[in-house]
Amino acid sequence: MRTFAEWNEPLPGSMDLVAHSGEVNRGSHVHSLVLTDIASGWTETAPILVREGTLVVETLERIRAGLPFALSALDVDNGSEFVNNKLIEYFLGHGIELTCSRPYRKNDQAWIEQKNGAVVRKLLGYRRFEGLAAARAITRLYGPLVQAAAKQRDGAKVTKRYHPPPTPCHRLLQAEAVPMATKSKLREIAAGLHSTHLLQNFSGSRPT
Protein backbone atom coordinates (compact mmCIF):
# COMPACT_ATOMS: atom_id res chain seq x y z
CA MET A 1 0.00 0.00 0.00
CA ARG A 2 1.35 3.45 -0.92
CA THR A 3 -0.15 6.79 0.19
CA PHE A 4 0.28 10.25 -1.36
CA ALA A 5 3.00 11.06 1.22
CA GLU A 6 5.18 8.06 0.36
CA TRP A 7 6.40 8.87 -3.15
CA ASN A 8 10.12 8.80 -2.38
CA GLU A 9 13.19 8.11 -4.51
CA PRO A 10 13.36 6.13 -6.65
CA LEU A 11 10.02 7.33 -7.96
CA PRO A 12 7.83 4.57 -9.45
CA GLY A 13 5.50 4.70 -12.37
CA SER A 14 1.73 4.91 -12.01
CA MET A 15 -0.97 3.07 -13.99
CA ASP A 16 -4.71 3.57 -14.39
CA LEU A 17 -7.65 2.84 -16.70
CA VAL A 18 -9.86 5.54 -18.25
CA ALA A 19 -13.32 4.42 -19.38
CA HIS A 20 -14.72 5.62 -22.71
CA SER A 21 -18.31 4.78 -21.86
CA GLY A 22 -20.03 8.04 -22.74
CA GLU A 23 -23.04 8.96 -20.63
CA VAL A 24 -24.02 5.36 -19.86
CA ASN A 25 -21.42 3.21 -18.08
CA ARG A 26 -22.64 -0.23 -19.09
CA GLY A 27 -21.96 -2.82 -21.73
CA SER A 28 -18.63 -3.32 -23.51
CA HIS A 29 -16.65 -0.21 -24.34
CA VAL A 30 -13.03 0.80 -24.88
CA HIS A 31 -10.77 1.81 -22.00
CA SER A 32 -7.42 3.59 -22.15
CA LEU A 33 -4.55 2.10 -20.16
CA VAL A 34 -2.36 4.99 -18.98
CA LEU A 35 1.16 4.73 -17.56
CA THR A 36 3.22 7.70 -16.42
CA ASP A 37 6.76 7.91 -15.09
CA ILE A 38 6.67 10.18 -12.02
CA ALA A 39 10.28 11.34 -12.35
CA SER A 40 10.23 12.47 -15.99
CA GLY A 41 6.51 12.76 -16.74
CA TRP A 42 6.90 10.34 -19.69
CA THR A 43 3.42 8.98 -20.44
CA GLU A 44 2.25 6.01 -22.50
CA THR A 45 -1.36 5.24 -23.43
CA ALA A 46 -3.01 2.33 -25.21
CA PRO A 47 -6.64 1.29 -25.76
CA ILE A 48 -8.12 -1.92 -24.31
CA LEU A 49 -11.30 -3.36 -25.79
CA VAL A 50 -12.77 -4.37 -22.42
CA ARG A 51 -11.81 -3.96 -18.77
CA GLU A 52 -10.18 -7.33 -18.05
CA GLY A 53 -7.04 -8.40 -16.18
CA THR A 54 -5.52 -10.56 -18.93
CA LEU A 55 -5.84 -7.75 -21.49
CA VAL A 56 -4.22 -5.35 -18.99
CA VAL A 57 -1.21 -7.68 -18.70
CA GLU A 58 -0.93 -8.11 -22.49
CA THR A 59 -1.16 -4.37 -23.11
CA LEU A 60 1.29 -3.58 -20.32
CA GLU A 61 3.78 -6.03 -21.84
CA ARG A 62 3.56 -4.27 -25.22
CA ILE A 63 4.03 -0.85 -23.63
CA ARG A 64 6.88 -2.07 -21.44
CA ALA A 65 8.74 -3.45 -24.46
CA GLY A 66 8.79 0.00 -26.06
CA LEU A 67 9.71 2.09 -23.03
CA PRO A 68 13.03 3.96 -23.25
CA PHE A 69 13.85 2.91 -19.68
CA ALA A 70 13.40 -0.13 -17.46
CA LEU A 71 10.13 -0.48 -15.57
CA SER A 72 11.17 -1.25 -11.98
CA ALA A 73 8.13 -0.21 -9.91
CA LEU A 74 4.48 0.56 -10.59
CA ASP A 75 1.63 1.86 -8.46
CA VAL A 76 -2.03 1.07 -9.26
CA ASP A 77 -5.45 1.57 -7.72
CA ASN A 78 -7.53 -1.17 -6.09
CA GLY A 79 -9.55 -2.17 -9.15
CA SER A 80 -9.92 -5.89 -9.84
CA GLU A 81 -8.36 -5.38 -13.29
CA PHE A 82 -5.08 -4.58 -11.46
CA VAL A 83 -5.23 -6.45 -8.15
CA ASN A 84 -5.44 -10.02 -9.48
CA ASN A 85 -3.26 -13.11 -9.77
CA LYS A 86 -2.40 -12.50 -13.44
CA LEU A 87 -0.87 -9.09 -12.83
CA ILE A 88 0.81 -10.09 -9.56
CA GLU A 89 2.41 -13.14 -11.22
CA TYR A 90 3.59 -10.97 -14.11
CA PHE A 91 5.24 -8.48 -11.78
CA LEU A 92 6.85 -11.18 -9.65
CA GLY A 93 8.16 -12.93 -12.76
CA HIS A 94 9.80 -9.72 -14.06
CA GLY A 95 11.11 -8.38 -10.75
CA ILE A 96 8.86 -5.30 -10.79
CA GLU A 97 7.68 -3.80 -7.50
CA LEU A 98 3.88 -3.49 -7.34
CA THR A 99 2.08 -1.21 -4.87
CA CYS A 100 -1.50 0.02 -4.71
CA SER A 101 -3.26 3.10 -3.40
CA ARG A 102 -5.90 3.23 -0.69
CA PRO A 103 -9.55 2.72 -1.73
CA TYR A 104 -11.37 5.95 -2.71
CA ARG A 105 -8.24 8.11 -2.17
CA LYS A 106 -7.54 9.69 -5.57
CA ASN A 107 -4.88 11.89 -3.96
CA ASP A 108 -2.68 8.80 -3.63
CA GLN A 109 -2.44 8.76 -7.43
CA ALA A 110 -2.51 12.46 -8.20
CA TRP A 111 0.05 12.18 -11.02
CA ILE A 112 -1.86 9.62 -13.05
CA GLU A 113 -5.18 11.40 -12.43
CA GLN A 114 -3.65 14.55 -13.91
CA LYS A 115 -2.50 12.65 -17.00
CA ASN A 116 -5.95 11.11 -17.42
CA GLY A 117 -7.33 14.61 -17.87
CA ALA A 118 -4.44 16.35 -19.63
CA VAL A 119 -3.80 13.55 -22.14
CA VAL A 120 -6.73 11.14 -22.51
CA ARG A 121 -9.71 13.42 -21.93
CA LYS A 122 -8.08 16.28 -23.84
CA LEU A 123 -7.71 14.07 -26.93
CA LEU A 124 -10.84 11.92 -26.70
CA GLY A 125 -13.23 13.81 -24.45
CA TYR A 126 -16.09 11.88 -22.83
CA ARG A 127 -17.66 10.20 -25.86
CA ARG A 128 -18.40 6.47 -26.00
CA PHE A 129 -16.11 4.24 -28.06
CA GLU A 130 -16.82 0.60 -28.84
CA GLY A 131 -15.24 -2.14 -30.90
CA LEU A 132 -12.01 -2.91 -32.68
CA ALA A 133 -12.25 -0.12 -35.27
CA ALA A 134 -12.49 2.54 -32.56
CA ALA A 135 -9.60 0.97 -30.62
CA ARG A 136 -7.40 0.99 -33.74
CA ALA A 137 -8.22 4.64 -34.42
CA ILE A 138 -7.33 5.53 -30.82
CA THR A 139 -4.04 3.65 -31.17
CA ARG A 140 -3.12 5.77 -34.21
CA LEU A 141 -4.09 8.94 -32.38
CA TYR A 142 -2.07 8.25 -29.26
CA GLY A 143 1.25 7.36 -30.87
CA PRO A 144 4.27 8.53 -28.84
CA LEU A 145 3.21 11.23 -26.39
CA VAL A 146 5.14 14.21 -25.10
CA GLN A 147 3.95 16.21 -22.09
CA ALA A 148 2.50 19.66 -22.69
CA ALA A 149 4.13 22.79 -21.24
CA ALA A 150 3.06 24.23 -17.88
CA LYS A 151 3.53 27.61 -16.28
CA GLN A 152 6.32 28.37 -13.78
CA ARG A 153 6.86 31.14 -11.24
CA ASP A 154 10.07 33.17 -11.55
CA GLY A 155 11.44 33.08 -8.00
CA ALA A 156 9.34 34.87 -5.37
CA LYS A 157 8.17 37.73 -7.58
CA VAL A 158 4.47 38.52 -7.65
CA THR A 159 4.48 38.84 -11.44
CA LYS A 160 4.35 35.47 -13.06
CA ARG A 161 6.38 34.59 -16.11
CA TYR A 162 5.63 31.58 -18.22
CA HIS A 163 8.34 29.37 -19.71
CA PRO A 164 7.96 26.03 -21.48
CA PRO A 165 9.44 23.48 -19.04
CA PRO A 166 11.47 20.47 -20.19
CA THR A 167 9.30 17.78 -21.72
CA PRO A 168 9.64 14.16 -20.54
CA CYS A 169 11.68 13.51 -23.68
CA HIS A 170 14.09 16.33 -22.83
CA ARG A 171 14.42 15.12 -19.24
CA LEU A 172 15.36 11.64 -20.44
CA LEU A 173 17.82 13.04 -22.98
CA GLN A 174 19.54 14.94 -20.18
CA ALA A 175 19.63 12.00 -17.77
CA GLU A 176 23.09 10.45 -17.42
CA ALA A 177 21.62 7.00 -16.66
CA VAL A 178 19.90 6.74 -20.07
CA PRO A 179 22.12 4.96 -22.68
CA MET A 180 23.15 6.82 -25.83
CA ALA A 181 21.35 4.28 -28.04
CA THR A 182 18.11 5.03 -26.19
CA LYS A 183 18.66 8.77 -26.56
CA SER A 184 19.10 8.35 -30.30
CA LYS A 185 15.80 6.46 -30.45
CA LEU A 186 14.09 9.22 -28.45
CA ARG A 187 15.34 11.87 -30.88
CA GLU A 188 13.92 9.87 -33.80
CA ILE A 189 10.55 9.58 -32.05
CA ALA A 190 10.44 13.31 -31.26
CA ALA A 191 11.35 14.22 -34.85
CA GLY A 192 8.52 12.10 -36.22
CA LEU A 193 5.70 13.46 -34.05
CA HIS A 194 2.83 14.98 -36.01
CA SER A 195 0.03 15.30 -33.42
CA THR A 196 -2.10 17.66 -35.53
CA HIS A 197 -2.04 15.26 -38.48
CA LEU A 198 -2.98 12.33 -36.23
CA LEU A 199 -5.85 14.28 -34.70
CA GLN A 200 -7.19 15.24 -38.14
CA ASN A 201 -7.09 11.59 -39.26
CA PHE A 202 -8.86 10.48 -36.07
CA SER A 203 -11.64 13.03 -36.55
CA GLY A 204 -12.58 11.16 -39.71
CA SER A 205 -13.13 7.86 -37.85
CA ARG A 206 -16.55 6.70 -36.73
CA PRO A 207 -16.70 5.99 -32.97
CA THR A 208 -20.06 4.98 -31.56
Task: Indicate the topology.
Elements: E1 13-19, E2 31-37, E3 43-48, H1 53-66, E4 73-76, H2 85-93, E5 97-100, H3 110-124, H4 131-142, H5 168-174, H6 180-191, H7 195-203
Parallel strand pairs: 1-4, 4-5
Antiparallel strand pairs: 1-2, 2-3
Short overview:
With 208 residues, this protein is of the alpha/beta class. The chain has 7 helices and 5 strands.
Which secondary-structure class do the elements indicate? alpha/beta
Shape: globular
Strand order of the largest sheet: 3-2-1-4-5
Oligomeric state of the chains in view: single chain
Order of helices and strands: EEEHEHEHHHHH
* Secondary-structure arrangement, i.e. CATH architecture: 2-Layer Sandwich
What is the total number of structural domains? 1
Helix content: 25-40%
Unreliable residue stretches: 1-7, 145-152, 157-165
By CATH, the topology is: Nucleotidyltransferase, domain 5
Strand content: 5-15%
Report mean pLDDT, rounded to a whole number.
76
- End-to-end gap: 38 Å
What gyration radius follows from the Cα positions, in whole Å? 18 Å
CATH class: Alpha Beta
The overall strand count is 5
List keywords for this structure.
208 residues, 38% helix, Nucleotidyltransferase, domain 5, 5-stranded mixed beta sheet, disordered N terminus, 5 strands, alpha/beta, globular
